[in-house]
Write a structure and sequence with these properties.
single chain; alpha/beta; Arc Repressor Mutant, subunit A; D-Maltodextrin-Binding Protein, domain 2; 11 helices; 17% strand; rod-shaped; disordered C terminus
């Protein structure tokens, strides 16, 4: 390829000295390269018998093919570079069970915008299973709820999401502007199964007990829909984000006093040489999507408070008769 580049430069300049200047090299090695190419091809490419260098018929025929080969080499190098940077191929990523459709759509959209040549395959997998698959090479990257053991792993940016308490709408606690953990005494607690995120599960229980709330019983729901159904039926309370509670008109969401529960979410991937080159980029995009999603939630909350200050019903107002079929809070979002 080096000899072809030299040949094309001489063919376009029809002058050995100018071609050498163009390529930033001395003329003697340039002339030697042309002669070696002619020897390899078994034909003369330049007519040097006249005052001006001219292409021979063989040189003229070779010029277009040489240009095409050099263009193909540039494409090949660009392709290899993009693949090495993770902009091509398939990235296998894990997401926590219960991840909302809105979050998944935002994440896939961001990947398509920033890395259009890369295909992303998302799998809904528990934290322990994600870590196992990353270690075995079956998964390139995972989005997990902290805390997790990150030995041998890279950890992406963390996003902190405040959690409040989800209560039946008819609960007396629903009339309070915020709820302290100790005020939840006597209630069962509805949680995602421990297998989905053991570290986070244990942290919730430790925080509850430290705050004066020792659940009378534990119930488990693998999906947000089941969690909301159990709460609305009076089988316990739960901790989650406000938008999750907004999907069920028979429950309400209230912030926790002193904000003791904040879910930490981040991407993790292998620290070995075999890690996918796109993993760090995906981790940044995932953190950005989760942060923007959280910012949107906070913005909606501030807007609701502003409306209430202007005369809208306060949180302490009793539920209206139509509240069971139409969620006024969701409407204000």
């Amino acid at each position: 390829m080096r000899h072809l580049r030299i040949f094309v430069a001489v063919a376009e300049e029809l002058h050995f000295s100018r071609a050498a200047d163009r390529l930033g090299m001395a003329q003697p090695p340039l002339s030697q390269a042309v002669r070696r190419l002619e020897e390899d091809l078994g034909t003369t490419l330049f007519d040097r018998s006249r005052r001006q260098v001219e292409l021979t018929p063989a040189g003229t025929a070779l010029l277009d093919e040489a240009r095409a080969l050099l263009t193909g080499e540039e494409r090949l190098r660009a392709l290899a570079r993009r693949a090495g940077e993770g902009d091509l191929g398939t990235l296998h990523a894990g997401v926590p069970p219960g991840t909302t459709v809105a979050t998944l759509s935002l994440l896939l959209g961001a990947c398509a915008e920033h890395y259009p040549g890369m295909s992303v395959e998302l799998q809904e997998i528990t934290t322990d299973e994600q870590l196992r698959l990353i270690a075995s090479g079956g998964l390139d990257i995972g989005i997990v709820h902290q805390p997790v053991d990150v030995t041998g792993l890279h950890l992406g940016p963390e996003v902190f999401i405040e959690l409040g308490v989800v209560l039946p709408r008819v609960s007396p606690l629903a009339r309070l502007p915020e709820v302290a953990l100790a005020e939840l005494a006597g209630h069962d607690l509805v949680l995602l199964p421990r297998a989905q995120a053991p570290g986070w599960y244990d942290r919730i229980l430790d925080t509850c007990r430290a705050g004066g709330f020792d659940p009378t019983g534990l119930r488990h729901a693998s999906r947000p829909e089941l969690l909301l159904a159990l709460v609305s039926a009076g089988h316990g309370i739960a901790f989650d984000q406000r938008p999750v509670a907004g999907k069920e008109p028979r429950v309400v969401w209230r912030p926790l006093a002193d904000r003791p529960l904040a879910r930490r979410t981040s991407a993790v991937w292998s620290a070995g040489r075999s890690s996918h080159p796109a993993a760090p980029h995906f981790a940044e995009l995932a953190a950005d999507v989760l942060a923007r999603d959280r910012t949107s939630i906070l913005h909606r909350d501030r807007t609701m408070n502003l409306h209430r200050d202007e005369g809208a019903p306060a949180k302490t107002d009793p539920p209206r008769p139509w509240a069971v079929v139409y969620d006024e809070t969701a409407w204000r979002w």
